[in-house]
Amino acid sequence: MNIKNKFFLNNLFNKKKPIVCLTAYCKNIANLVDQFADIILVGDSVGPVLYGYKSTREVSLDLMINHGKAVVNNSKNAIVIIDMPYGSYEKSKYLALKNANLILKKTGAFGVKLEGGMEISETIKYLVKKKINVMGHLGMLPQKIKKNQFKVYGKSDVEKKRFKRDAISLVDSGVFAIVIEATKEKLVNEIIKDINIPTLGIGASSNCSGQILVTEDILGMTNFNAKFVKKYIDLNKKIKSSIRKFSIDVKSKKYPQKKHLY
Ligand code: KIV
């Protein structure tokens, strides 16, 4: 573990202020997010957000590695975590280790994130034993849904029991933090009070140790309108208006002017 990483982990555990976590997939956004976030997640949401995939299940390992490299190379303050994509870790702990090592070696990221609870706890234990920093992800799990089946987690008794069981098993497996997505607030509050590692909420609870959102969602560049999204600007509208102006300028020969030419 390098000095930056050691420092980060100590800091994360002792933080008085909530942890700020945002996604980034490319150089420009990484540069901006890096100025304010403690953690940057190269999420597999890159598939739906940048490529228009129907779900995160279509995202490949190569895609994650390429975007991971761009983000790591363009952030100097935040710790970068990369999502292990669907199909890259579920079958066996050996496959998970091979792919996690590939991601970390090729990108230089701090760690990886895997979705799931007890069913992957042996795999996580194995990764942690092999010195991989692992972030967990519980609640609504995007890799489990095929398309447009977004559903709040933790309403039924089965889900409530499973959530408790999964949270305990992730902590025991050695994850350094857990993302909790779209889960009933009361259930989250009940569980996180007994958890001694940082939790990052996304539609979970304001009592989590920090909050995470997809940057393109808060910038108004997607049409994703889950309750937890807070849109700070409507960039789509602004971009559209600029593109329209350019198109008018070209058609009316207002662009280029002398100052734009050699
Ligand atoms: O892929 C992603 O962006 C995520 C966050 C939304 C937590 O997993």
Q: What would your notes on this structure say?
A:
With 262 residues, the protein is of the alpha/beta class. The chain contains 10 helices and 8 strands. It has an 8-stranded parallel barrel with strand order 1-2-3-4-5-6-7-8, surrounded by 5 helices. Helix 4 (61-72) packs parallel to helix 5 (93-107). The chain has helices at 3-14, 27-33, 46-51, 61-72, 93-107, 121-129, 157-173, 185-192, 215-218, 235-251; strands at 19-23, 39-42, 79-83, 111-113, 134-139, 177-181, 199-202, 210-213. It folds into 2 domains: 3-231, Alpha-Beta Barrel (TIM Barrel), CATH 3.20.20; 235-262. Bound molecules: 3-methyl-2-oxobutanoic acid (KIV). 3-methyl-2-oxobutanoic acid binds at residues 23, 41, 43-45, 83, 179, 181, 202, 212, 214. Residues 23, 41, 43-45, 83, 179, 181, 202, 212, 214 line the site of 3-methyl-2-oxobutanoic acid.
- List the bound ligands: 3-methyl-2-oxobutanoic acid
Q: Which oligomeric state applies?
A: single chain
Secondary-structure arrangement, i.e. CATH architecture of the largest domain: Alpha-Beta Barrel
Write out the strand line-up for the largest beta sheet, numbering strands in chain order.
1-2-3-4-5-6-7-8
State the separation between the terminal residues, measured CA to CA. 51 Å
Strand content: 5-15%
The H/E string reads HEHEHHEHEHEHEHEEHH
Mean model confidence by pLDDT? 95
Shape: globular
CATH fold-level topology of the largest domain: TIM Barrel
Quick structural overview:
The protein is 41% helix and 14% strand. It is of the alpha/beta class.
